[in-house]
Amino acid sequence: MRAISQDVLGGPGVLKEVELERPVPGPSEVLVKVHAAGVNPTDWIHRATGLILGEPPFVLGWDVSGVVEAVGLGVTIHRPGDEVFGMLKYPYGNGSHAEYVVSAARHLVRKPANLDHVQAAALPLAAITAWQALVDTADLQEGRRVLIHAAAGGVGHLAVQIAKARGAYVIGTARAPKHDFVRGLGADEVIDYTTTDFAEAVRDVDVVLDGVGGEYGPRSLPTLRKGGVLVSIVNHVRDLDVERYGVRAEEMLVEADHASMRQVAAAAEAGRLRAAIDSVFPLADAARAHERGETGRVTGKIVLTV
Questions:
Q1: Cβ contacts of residue 243 below 8 Å, gap of 6+?
Q2: Which of 106, 167, 187, 222 falls between 20 and 30 A from 271, CA-CA?
Q3: In Å, how far are 23, 140, 276 from 136, measured between CA atoms?
Q4: Whose CA is closest to 212, among 244, 234, 241?
Q5: CB 267 within 8 A of CB 173
């Protein structure tokens, strides 16, 4: 089968198309013929640094949408021919940037009929991240106020939709050209972080979702009301002076999870959650997809088609 692999760490140019043996599903696993696969920041970070995966060779990709080709021993929820989508186990279930991939059966759900494979592949990792941050970690409730950084990005634009669906008041940060896009997702306020200091402009929020990192975590603490929570998906926040502000800070790593994936699928099927597609590239052009991602100007998600 064709796959995008690398032998060394580095820039997008290290990615190359290779021929690999088609994997075989083991117990509780399914083999998926990949139709589309999302590309996320974790992909280009791993490509360049190895991060959690370590040294190559490896095939990247955690988002997948496709058709079940075969099932392993004990699988009862999927059958060959089923259209499915989901997130492979993070971080060590990588490999969706290929013609076929093996996944734990319960990390996948049926693809809603109102989503094509590109739309479906754009959702899982980013949407599960947003859901687990806002719902599972922060327990976001109706009437709460939430500040979402990078609100036009992959996780951010889905987090806006999830927060609004739960009845929250949403404030997003984004560059001015993206304000109409973020408001169109349902945001109540949008702040241009290049001209306005959000740490001065925002107060009394219950939840901050930080997908930027760096100084965004500590600078977000004064925006929280007492008892509020900062959830960071990109940075270490355990050493922040949370006691000074009477808040808590959590650093979260997304987990592949059947319950979260079912929530994402249900929201998408009901029309409450939809991924904005920034760009689509064929599998062979994975390097160009990474180049696009690393511009830092992506609106929504990048997807590879197979």
A1: none
A2: 106
A3: 33, 8, 24
A4: 234
A5: no
pLDDT tens for 92-110 read: 999 999 999 999 999 999 9
Q: How far, CA to CA in Å, does 259 sit from each of 109, 128, 219, 265?
A: 10, 10, 33, 10
- CA angle centred on 62, ends 57 and 66, rounded to 5°: 115
Instruction: List, as own/partner pairs, every contact residues 228-236 make where C-beta atoms lie below 8 angstroms and the sequence separation is at least 24, other chains included.
Output: 229/137, 229/138, 231/133, 231/134, 231/137, 231/138, 231/207, 233/129, 233/133, 233/155, 233/209, 234/210, 235/210
Half-sphere exposure of 48 (CA within 13 A, CB side): 12
**Token reading at 284:** 């062979």
Helix (H, G, I), strand (E, B) or coil at 213: coil
Q: Which residue has the tokens 């190895």?
A: 50
Query: Are the C-beta atoms of 69 and 80 separated by less than 8 Å?
Result: yes
Q: Could you give the 3-state DSSP secondary structure of residue 266?
A: helix
Three-class SS of residue 71?
Answer: strand
Look up residue 161 and give its DSSP letter: H
